[in-house]
Amino acid sequence: MGYSNWSDDAYSHLKSKRANASRDDIFVNNKKGAASPRMSPLNLKFRESRDSEAHPESLAIGVFLDVTGSMGRIPEVLVREKLGKLMNTLITHGIAHPQLLFGAIGDHISDRHPLQIGQFESGTDELDQWLTEIYIEGGGGGQVMESYTLAWLFAARHTSIDCFEKRRQKGFVFTIGDEAAWDTISTDHLKSLMGYAQADSVTDKELLAEAERTYHVFHIHVNEASYKNDPRVLGYWKNILGERLIILNDHAAIAETIATTVAVIHGIDAKQVLAAFDNKTANTVSEALVNINKGGASSKAGTNKKGIFKF
């Protein structure tokens, strides 16, 4: 997928059409009360990010959005305001051919639709289509844990990306939410959710290790509301991700935070990226990324750069 191109004019048109639309008008499956069959992971073999004439050096970026509780506002912010900022920041700072896959995360213990999966896309209409096809279930189980590890499972086992397979260049996976993650996915849940005929239960650490073979894996903790500075949540993420935990104090800066992280990993000076934002956003993103260990990681598998997150 990902053969079309980004257009600011097309995105401006979509934004203007939705100026007075409700969330349920935008996210069409909300009124149906169920996820789109097109986004079901059941028996889904692969989502693909491929090079093409239009995008000869594609870069796969998976963005998995928590759609439980108050986190449903973040997909809405992206649709209404920030999808253009995300794409334009990437494109103007060295990521000429981003291919984004939008997914949605819930709770595999309690929700009907704990994982929804789009396609890798580069064009305005296609990105908007998959983003607005997400069903914002608004569930969650109340245990301070959601199923972010399903994103690692899918990225590791059900994507095929040219950036890595052709160039040994890792893609990116971002999970976004405000809780910790379940540390195990059971055999029964793997079978029912993914359609596996045979499966062994798998831990968060095992899935993270699988995903890291081909992706830079980050989690953005939205540090607001009930779980602001919650030691149970932050302790979990610091333990499992360390420097790849991004603590963001304003959900409105999600797009800029993702784009800045990708650009900096690819060698762009962070100050150059931050200069493109207003002062409030630049300060928010800078504060979020300064928490990442200065060691960071390079865009190539098996190598490492020092000091790439110095601001």
Outline the structure in words.
With 311 residues, the protein is an alpha/beta fold. The protein has a single domain (8-259), classed as von Willebrand factor, type A domain (Rossmann fold, 3-Layer(aba) Sandwich). It is built from 13 helices and 12 strands. The protein has helices at residues 8-17, 23-26, 28-32, 73-92, 124-132, 149-157, 162-167, 187-194, 204-212, 231-241, 254-265, 270-274, 279-290; strands spanning 47-49, 59-66, 98-105, 115-117, 145-146, 159-161, 171-177, 180-181, 184-185, 202-203, 215-222, 245-248. Strand 11 (215-222), helix 10 and strand 12 form a beta-alpha-beta unit. The longest helix is centred in the first third of the chain and has 20 residues, at 73-92.
Keywords:
disordered C terminus, 311 residues, alpha/beta, globular, Rossmann fold, single chain
CATH topology category name: Rossmann fold
Main-sheet strand order equals 4-3-2-7-11-12
Element order: H for helix, E for strand: HHHEEHEEHEHEHEEEHEHEHEHHH
State the domain count. Answer: 1
**Mind telling me which CATH architecture this is?**
3-Layer(aba) Sandwich
* Total beta strand runs: 12
CATH class: Alpha Beta
Shape: globular
Nearest-integer average pLDDT: 91
> How large a portion of the residues is in β-strands, by DSSP E?
15-25%
**Multimerization status:** single chain
Largest sheet: 6 strands, mixed
C-alpha termini separation: 35 Å
How many distinct helices?
13
CATH superfamily: von Willebrand factor, type A domain
